[in-house]
Write a structure and sequence with these properties.
Strands 1-3-6-5 form a four-stranded mixed beta sheet. A four-stranded mixed beta sheet has the order 2-8-7-4. About 6% of the residues have low confidence. Helix content is 24%, strand content 45%. By secondary structure, it is α/β, with parallel strands linked by helices. The protein contains three helices and eight strands.
């Protein structure tokens, strides 16, 4: 009671204190959300290789390797791949089968004329992976009895 007599509490003082409290709480929440927003994995983009489709590839299948190099655990790496049709006949990518969920291949299903090229995207998600990784990606081509097998290689630190 002694302090209340010296410093009377007015309605305006209560409103100012409540406003300051709300402002302080808002700033605290904003800082917490900003700190928590850094949980997204890092994404690193690479200029990828050229994968050439030849008559031999369309007739008997083929293999190639895409190397991502060293990655940190939790990092997502993306390579833009150029697919060139060096065969004498047109083809198209009709399907893609990955050996695990950490690799994803995005492509345009439109026909690829002889001599033409198109871009595709290969993504490797290293979350949950450690050490040397070798993943398989089978790309089915129209008019080809066997798929084009792509090996995806990465070293996860």
């Amino acid at each position: 009671m002694h302090l209340l007599r010296r410093f009377p509490v007015t309605a305006a003082a209560v409103r100012r204190a409540a406003a300051c409290s709300r402002l302080g709480m808002g700033l605290c929440l904003a800082a917490c959300f900003a700190a928590c927003g850094n949980n997204a994995p890092a994404v690193r983009e690479y200029k990828g290789p050229i994968i050439a489709l030849t008559d031999a590839t369309l007739d008997a299948g083929g293999t190639d390797t895409v190397r991502f190099g060293r990655l940190h655990s939790g990092e997502i790496a993306v390579q833009r791949i150029l697919i060139e049709n060096r065969a004498s006949r047109p083809t198209a990518i009709v399907a893609c089968d990955a050996s695990c969920g950490c690799t994803r291949f995005e492509f345009d299903p439109q026909p690829l004329a002889a001599g033409a090229s198109q871009r595709a995207t290969l993504t490797f998600d290293s979350r949950g992976e450690y050490g040397w990784q070798l993943k398989r990606l089978d790309i089915s081509l129209a008019g080809a009895p066997r798929p084009l097998r792509i090996f995806v290689e990465a070293e996860i630190e």
